[in-house]
Amino acid sequence: GAVVSQHPSRVICKSGTSVKIECRSLDFQATTMFWYRQFPKQSLMLMATSNEGSKATYEQGVEKDKFLINHASLTLSTLTVASAHPEDSSFYICSAPTGQGSYNEQFFGPGTRLTVL
Amino acid sequence: GNSVTQMEGPVTLSEEAFLTINCTYTATGYPSLFWYVQYPGEGLQLLLKATKADDKGSNKGFEATYRKETTSFHLEKGSVQVSDSAVYFCALQGGTSYGKLTFGQGTILTVHP
Questions:
Q1: Are the beta carbons of A102 and B108 separated by less than 8 Å?
Q2: Chain A residue closest to B86 (CA)?
């Protein structure tokens, strides 16, 4: 199957710093990618839809100025957590569908664990 | 809007026991239904899917049938193994929302030898 990578896999930073997380589709092009946040022992919460060549679409309650998304190319989307605080600590996961249409399969990255001290 | 309600865990079973994890959904239109599995320290992997009513998805001994009349997609396996220990997520993808998945809360499964 298709492969989606994320980098870094783990990051620890001080409060107030900005952290960039990359999501790459390694063997296919993705005009759309999705960013999720997963709290311990809880489900995935969709944060935003990243669209190549246009602005990201954020879910209700997600701060656009806090979670900056850039879909730089057909294989790369980045999530920047601006001025991170301890409450931003979480597991961030991206996914990408492999094709057009409603029944396309999504492939998930391995996730990035962010810890803000 | 779309929603998925999943059986709460954690679920603890002995090896070779029968597994059922319940999943019900609410959605408009005709969604596709999925089960994803997340092994410790790994990303989500698609376990199986069904795209229309009465379809049965199956993989690695797991099965789930798309029941439109009961809006359910229960996951079953006849004989679990220690290696099946993981978190299982039920999810749906609405027909009008391109690629957007709605997840259930996840069920932690632990299988003991």
A1: no
A2: A41
